Amino acid sequence: MKVKRETLLLLACLVWSAAGVNILRIGLQSYKGYATGLNLLLSAAVFAVFQVFVFGRLVGKHTRRIQGYGEERQFFLKFFDAKAFAMMAVMMGGGIGIRVSGLAPERFIAVFYSGLGASLLLAGLLFGRNYGRAILDRAAVQNRSATTKGE
Question: Which of the 8 DSSP states describes residue 17?
Answer without folding.
Answer: H
